[in-house]
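Subject: sequence -> structure tokens, single chain

Hey, anyone have a minute? Need the predicted structure for the following. Not urgent.
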Amino acid sequence: MKLSLLTLPLGLALSFATTSAFAFDGTINFSGKITSATCPIEIVNPESGAVSNLVPMGEVDVSEFTSSGTEVGGRGFQMRISPDSNCLTDKNKLNATVTFTSVQGGAGEYYGIKRLPGAAEGIAVAIKDNTGNFIPTGTASTVYPLSEDDPTLMYFVASYISTAASVGAGPADADVNFRVDIH
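Reply:
Had a minute. Here:
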């Protein structure tokens, strides 16, 4: 009996020794760069040329919304990228897409209105790209070619869209985040 208890630890020790015979060593290299460069994107009013992150949507009467999905009050805006900014560091990457995301949420594919006391109800903001295609929240826009010599203006249109059969009057402000991917 003493003999078999002694062979068990000896057998375990030998199995560990044979396992380490198949071990391999190697090295993984990581390479990158940390920069402080930023890429300023300007929001431009195409009618006046004014630079501001505020796109005035104006006033729309509730009677203009006849059913769910009715778009009213389109307002154009542009996003400008200057060639001398830090945005175009790689001259092989001269295309951009823009992804908008709703800050307020709660409007499905559209961009939700701020939930303030007395705010409009049954309404959201819709954004379309320069081809007239709707851009759902979290989805990339069409590709915009970038100029390496002149400022690039990426054109969009925002409008109100009814999300219910009837719309309630009130302030209809929305915040929308954006991300510009240059590729």
